Amino acid sequence: MAAPGLLPGIGRFFEVAPVLVRVSRPYSKPHAFTEVRQLPKSQLTKLVFPLQDLEQYLLPDSKSDLHLKTFDPSLEDIARADWFFTATERNRIEYHSSAERLDHAPALTRPEVCFIGRSNVGKSSLIKALFSLAPEVEVRVSKKPGHTKKMNFFKVGKYFTLVDMPGYGYRAPADFVDMVETYLKERKNLMRTFLLVDSVVGIQKADNIAVEMCEELALPYVMVLTKIDKSSKGHLLKQVLQIQKFVDTKTQGCFPQLFPVSAVTYSGIHLLRCFIANITGNLKTDGV
Question: With a threshold of 0.90, does the pTM exceed it?
Answer without folding.
Answer: no
